[in-house]
Design goal:
Layout (H helix, E strand, L loop, with lengths): L3 E5 L7 E2 L3 E4 L3 E7 L4 E7 L1 H4 L2 E2 L4 E4 L4 E8 L8 E9 L4 E9 L28 H14 L3 H20 L3 H22 L1
Helix pairs in contact: 3-4
Keywords: Membrane, Transmembrane, Transmembrane helix
InterPro entries: DUF7524 (IPR055946)
Length: about 200
């Protein structure tokens, strides 16, 4: 698949360098290679080309010293003869304009018999059976012991019990909220240690 390479900001601000002619027989990318400051680029196909070629968006932003690829869709499947037209490239909100003569040729590829697909790809992949909750808890406890996280889990449990005791002993909304935050953090830390 040929690529239409367009150089931006080469020797001067908003300068556009592109080939005079470009030929494709199907979809193709436009590669905007920016050699300077960031810029906005507008692309437009004339009426003849617009029948067979299109882009999702006509306005594109290209960052400093970056390359931006724009996909051109071509509907040339039932094209009997070549279509010629002009691609208009504009930078700097109209300060510079360049035209490229584009020719879209009928596709030379033939479908033939198509692609043979193995029957195994027509069925969804098999998933392993769901692990029961009892087994997941047992696996989590095994990981807890293997990782040496038992002291952290015990400390989290002590913090939760102490927080609840303090919240019940001091009947204050602010203390209860603070204890709630501590309990939430402790539970999350314990779950992370187990999982």
């Amino acid at each position: 698949m040929p690529t239409l390479v367009v150089e931006l900001n080469g020797n001067s601000v908003h300068e556009i360098r592109a080939p005079d002619r470009f030929t494709a027989s199907g979809p193709f990318p436009i590669s905007f290679e920016n050699h300077g400051r960031s810029t906005h680029v507008h692309v437009h196909f004339d009426d003849d080309l617009d029948r067979v070629a299109s882009v999702d968006e006509t306005n594109h932003f290209v960052d400093d010293e970056a390359t931006r690829h724009v996909h051109v869709s071509v509907s040339a499947d039932d094209l009997a003869e070549s279509v010629r037209g002009k691609l208009k490239i504009v930078t700097g909100y109209g300060s510079e304009t360049r035209y490229v003569n584009v020719q879209i040729d009928p596709s030379t590829e033939t479908d033939g018999d198509g692609v043979t697909v193995d029957e195994t790809f027509t069925k969804p992949p098999e998933r392993p059976p769901e692990v029961p909750l009892r087994q997941r808890v047992a696996n989590s406890l095994d990981r807890l012991v293997e990782r040496g996280s038992v002291p952290a889990a015990v400390l989290a449990l002590v913090a939760v019990v102490a927080g609840v005791a303090v919240a019940l002993a001091i009947d204050s909304t602010i203390v209860s909220l603070a204890v709630g935050v501590v309990i939430a953090v402790s539970v999350i830390a314990a779950l992370l240690a187990v999982w």
